[in-house]
Amino acid sequence: MRTAIFLDRDDTLIENRDLPWKEVGTPPGDLCSPAFVRLLPGVRDACEHMANAGFVLIVVTNQGLVARGVGTIDDVEQTNARLHELLTVNGRRLIERIYSCPYHPKGTVPPFNTEHAWRKPSPGMILAAASELDLDLSRSWLIGDAQRDIDAGLASGISPDRCLRVGPDQPLPDLRAASRVILGS
Predict the structure, then answer these.
(1) What is the pLDDT of residue 120?
(2) What integer pLDDT is reported at residue 142 of this predicted model?
(3) C-alpha dihedral over 167, 29, 155, 141, to 10 degrees?
(4) What are phi and psi of 77, to 5 degrees?
(5) Which of 21, 74, 78, 150 has the most C-beta neighbours closer than 10 Å?
(6) Mind listing the domains of the chain with CATH numbers?
(7) How far apart are CA 129 and CA 146, in angstroms?
(8) Could you tell me if 79 and 28 are in contact, meaning their C-beta atoms sit under 8 angstroms apart?
């Protein structure tokens, strides 16, 4: 079995909170345009170091904007494809797979306007990845910027000390700092 690092997307890997939302053209937080995908500082290097250390990098991201009618599944897939492009080094994709949950219980677009086992803080995306990709959750890690990310990791069986929260008001300010904890450097 392989060991993974599960990564939240928005404000963990790519800028979201501080995007110019009037230019983006969607409500704040609802990024579904590849043109506005911008890696946060140090993300590419951190992902490269973690992948080179033998970890499988998996993105798990809530994308309830589909349920709210802000964007489509195709918009989310194109945005994720741009993330893949930015995190490709010498033809090698650093992110093995991206799991996106388009559901939101307050949405208006059927069939996505419901709660779903994949929607964080539920562990569905992590459990699906573990099953599909033969991942050992007992040795895996999770990095995210919100409590729902941490809760999803814990609910999946990832140890609390391996669920790392990043952000400007956290002890670990960014992905680079979290990768240092994981890699012991």
Answers:
(1) 98
(2) 98
(3) -40
(4) -65, -40
(5) 150
(6) 4-183 (3.40.50.1000)
(7) 20
(8) no
Rg (CA), the chain: 15
Residue 98, pLDDT score: 98
Backbone angles phi, psi at 158, to 5 degrees: -75, 135
Q: Which amino acid appears at position 171 of this protein? A: P
45 an active-site residue? no
Give residues with Cβ within 8 angstroms of 24, minimum separation 6: 31, 33, 36
Instruction: Specify the 3-state DSSP secondary structure of 142.
Output: strand
Structure tokens at 151: 């809760």
- Max CA distance (Å), the chain: 47
Question: Which tokens sit at 104?
Answer: 């939101």
* pTM passes above 0.90: yes
Rounded distance between C-alpha atoms, residue 62 and residue 47, angstroms: 20
* Structural tokens at position 72: 């489509």
Pairing of strands 56-62, 95-101: parallel
Residue with tokens 């937080």: 29
25, amino acid identity = G
Is 151 assigned a catalytic role? no
